[in-house]
C-alpha cells in the first residue's frame, strides 16, 4: 500500500463535519439495489471468475467506450484477445481517465474488494492482475459472496415479460442466499410495433409464455396481464420502462385494435400510429402496476445505438448510446394526470438522462404527490451519464430545491457487475460531503443528529419503506 493512498477512509469527505456524517451515519448502512442488470443466472449458479478481466470488463460498456476513446483496438475490448491482454489495455487507459468517474469507481472497487490501493497503470498492471486473480480464487469472491460482503439485502434484476424466472425461483428456494433477488418487469418490447417482424416474433413468444393464442389485441392484453400476475406471484413489485420520451396522444380503442391487427398482418405503421400505440401501452402498464401496488420506474431520454456500424458488428448495449433531447413535459403531465384522475397512479420514480430535465421533472412530481405515501413521486438518482459526482449533485440540488431531498430513495447501481456495489459508497460520500459543507457554511443547521438521520434515510431507510420487498 502506498504511504498516502488515493482511496482512504476520508476519500471525497472534505470537512470534519462530512467525515462525522459519513462514518457515523452512512458507512454501515446496508444496501437495497432496486435497479440493476445483474444476471439471476449468475446468482443462482453462484458464478466464480478465473480472472479480474471477466469480473470487471465483461459486459461493461462504460469501460468499452472509454477504451475506444483511448485508441484501443476492438480486439482488446470485445474481441478475441486473451484476458491478460484486455486487462493490460484497460490498465493503459486508466491514467487517461482523470476527470472521468470510471477512475474513482475502479480505484474504489480495487480497494474495497481486493485491498489494492496502488493506482492502476501499465507499471502496476501485472501485479494487480495477479493479486486480484488470487483473491477471486478464494471463498467469498463468487457472485453471492460479493453480494454478501457488500451488505446487500435486496436486488431487483431487469426481466422481460417472457422470462420464465426459473433462476429467481432457484435463488428464492436456497436458504443459503442471504439477499432477496427479485425480478423487475421490463415490458419495453411490448411498446415497439415499429419493429414489425421483430415485434411479431416477440408477441408470439409472449403468447407461448402465457399459454395464450395472440390472435387479437384483446388476447395480447390477456397475455400481458397473465405474465404480470406471474411476475407478482414470484415477488416482483417493481416495473421499469426504458423510453425515449413520454407518450400520451389521443386514440380510440378501435384505433389501437386496428394498429395491432395491421402490424400483425405485416403492414407498415405510420409515425402517428406508432405513437398512439405507445401511448396506450404506457397507460395500460401504469394501470397494471397501480392495481398490484407496484412501483413504476421510467428511464427516459436515451438516444441508443448511434453507430450503425458498431450496432451491425456487435449489437446493442456496447457503448454507443448518448443523451437525447426529446420534449417530455406535456406528455408526462397528460399521462400522470389521466392515471391520477382514475385513481391508478402508482408510486413512480423518474430518471431523466438529459440533465436539463432535472428541474422539469422535480417540479412535475410535486403536482402528483397525493399524501398517500411519503415521496410517492420520485426524481430518481443520477442515471447513466449522470451517475457521477456532478450529475449526482445536480440531481440532489434539483430535488432539494423543488421537493423533499429527505424523502429520496437513494442510489442504485444500474450495473451488470457484481463489483459495482461500491457506487452506493461513492454516492453516500458525495451526499455527506454536500450536506457537511452546507452545515459548516451555515446553509443547514449544525445539528448532526438531524442531518445524520436524513442521511440514514436516504442511504437505506427510505428505500426499505418505499418498496414492498419485505426488508426492515
What does this structure look like?
- With 472 residues, this protein is an alpha/beta fold.
- Among the domains are: 48-136, Orthogonal Bundle (uronate isomerase, domain 2, chain A); 157-386, Metal-dependent hydrolases (TIM Barrel).
- The chain is 48% helix and 8% strand.
- It is built from 19 helices and nine strands.
- It has helices at residues 16-26, 40-44, 52-56, 61-69, 83-93, 101-114, 125-136, 143-149, 166-173, 197-210, 217-233, 253-264, 271-291, 308-314, 329-341, 358-365, 389-402, 422-441, 448-466, and strands spanning 31-33, 152-156, 180-182, 238-243, 295-300, 302-303, 322-323, 347-352, 377-379.
- It has a four-stranded parallel beta sheet, with helices on one face.
- The mean pLDDT is 97.
Describe the SSE topology.
Elements: H1 16-26, E1 31-33, H2 40-44, H3 52-56, H4 61-69, H5 83-93, H6 101-114, H7 125-136, H8 143-149, E2 152-156, H9 166-173, E3 180-182, H10 197-210, H11 217-233, E4 238-243, H12 253-264, H13 271-291, E5 295-300, E6 302-303, H14 308-314, E7 322-323, H15 329-341, E8 347-352, H16 358-365, E9 377-379, H17 389-402, H18 422-441, H19 448-466
Parallel strand pairs: 1-2, 2-3, 4-5, 5-8, 8-9
Antiparallel strand pairs: 6-7
Helix pairs in contact: 1-18, 1-19, 10-11, 12-13, 16-17, 17-18
Q: What is CATH's topology name of the domain at 157-386?
A: TIM Barrel
User: Can you count the helices?
Assistant: 19
CATH class of the domain at 157-386: Alpha Beta
User: How much helix, percentage-wise, in residues?
Assistant: 40-55%
Query: What do the pLDDT scores average to?
Result: 97
Distance linking N and C termini: 38 Å
- Oligomerization category of the chains in this entry: single chain
Major β-sheet profile = 4 strands, parallel
Strand residues, percent: 5-15%
Structural class: alpha/beta
Give the spatial strand order of the biggest sheet: 4-5-8-9
Query: What best-fitting shape do the alpha-carbon axes yield?
Result: globular
CATH architecture of the domain at 157-386: Alpha-Beta Barrel
- Give Rg in angstroms: 23 Å
Contiguous uncertain segments of 5+ residues: none
Instruction: List the secondary-structure elements in sequence, H or E.
Output: HEHHHHHHHEHEHHEHHEEHEHEHEHHH
Q: What is the β-strand count? A: 9
Amino acid at each position: 500500500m502506498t504511504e498516502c493512498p488515493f482511496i482512504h477512509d476520508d476519500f471525497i469527505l472534505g470537512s470534519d463535519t462530512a467525515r462525522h456524517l459519513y462514518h457515523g451515519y452512512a458507512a454501515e448502512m446496508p444496501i437495497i439495489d432496486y435497479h440493476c442488470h445483474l444476471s439471476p443466472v449468475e446468482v443462482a449458479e453462484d458464478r466464480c471468475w478465473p480472472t479480474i478481466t471477466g469480473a470487471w470488463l465483461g459486459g461493461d460498456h462504460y469501460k468499452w467506450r472509454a477504451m475506444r476513446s483511448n485508441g484501443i483496438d476492438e480486439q482488446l475490448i470485445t474481441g478475441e484477445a486473451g484476458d491478460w491482454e484486455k486487462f493490460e489495455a484497460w490498465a493503459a487507459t486508466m491514467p487517461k481517465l482523470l476527470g472521468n468517474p470510471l477512475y474513482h469507481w475502479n480505484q474504489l472497487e480495487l480497494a474495497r474488494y481486493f485491498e489494492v490501493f496502488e493506482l492502476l497503470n501499465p507499471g502496476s498492471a501485472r501485479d494487480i492482475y495477479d493479486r486480484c486473480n488470487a483473491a477471486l480464487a478464494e471463498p467469498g469472491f463468487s457472485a453471492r459472496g460479493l453480494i454478501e460482503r457488500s451488505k446487500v439485502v435486496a436486488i431487483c434484476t431487469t426481466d422481460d415479460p417472457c422470462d420464465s424466472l426459473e433462476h429467481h425461483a432457484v435463488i428464492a428456494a436456497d436458504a443459503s442466499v442471504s439477499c432477496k433477488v427479485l425480478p423487475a418487469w421490463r415490458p419495453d418490447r411490448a411498446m415497439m410495433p415499429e419493429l414489425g417482424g421483430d415485434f411479431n416474433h416477440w408477441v408470439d413468444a409472449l403468447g407461448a409464455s402465457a399459454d395464450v393464442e395472440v390472435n387479437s389485441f384483446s388476447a395480447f392484453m390477456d397475455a400481458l396481464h397473465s405474465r404480470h400476475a406471474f411476475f407478482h406471484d414470484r415477488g416482483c413489485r417493481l416495473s421499469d420502462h426504458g423510453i425515449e420520451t413520454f407518450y400520451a396522444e389521443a386514440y380510440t380503442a378501435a384505433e389501437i385494435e386496428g394498429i395491432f391487427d395491421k402490424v400483425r398482418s405485416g403492414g407498415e405503421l405510420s409515425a402517428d400510429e406508432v405513437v398512439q400505440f405507445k401511448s396506450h401501452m404506457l397507460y395500460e402498464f401504469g394501470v397494471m402496476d397501480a392495481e398490484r401496488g407496484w412501483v413504476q420506474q421510467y428511464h427516459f431520454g436515451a438516444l441508443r445505438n448511434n453507430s450503425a456500424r458498431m450496432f451491425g458488428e456487435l449489437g446493442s448495449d456496447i457503448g454507443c448510446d448518448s443523451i437525447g433531447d426529446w420534449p417530455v413535459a406535456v406528455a408526462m403531465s397528460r399521462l400522470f394526470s389521466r392515471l391520477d384522475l382514475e385513481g391508478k397512479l402508482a408510486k413512480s420514480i423518474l430518471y431523466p438522462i438529459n440533465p436539463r430535465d432535472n428541474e422539469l421533472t422535480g417540479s412535475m412530481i410535486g403536482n402528483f404527490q397525493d399524501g398517500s405515501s411519503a415521496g410517492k413521486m420520485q426524481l430518481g438518482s443520477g442515471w447513466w451519464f449522470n451517475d457521477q459526482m456532478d450529475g449526482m449533485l445536480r440531481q440532489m440540488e434539483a430535488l432539494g430545491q423543488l421537493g423533499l431531498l429527505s424523502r429520496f430513495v437513494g442510489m442504485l447501481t444500474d450495473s451488470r457487475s457484481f463489483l459495482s456495489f461500491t457506487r452506493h459508497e461513492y454516492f453516500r460520500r458525495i451526499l455527506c460531503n454536500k450536506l457537511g459543507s452546507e452545515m459548516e457554511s451555515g446553509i443547514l443547521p449544525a445539528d448532526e443528529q438531524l442531518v445524520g438521520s436524513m442521511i440514514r434515510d436516504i442511504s437505506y431507510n427510505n428505500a426499505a419503506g418505499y418498496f414492498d420487498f419485505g426488508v426492515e
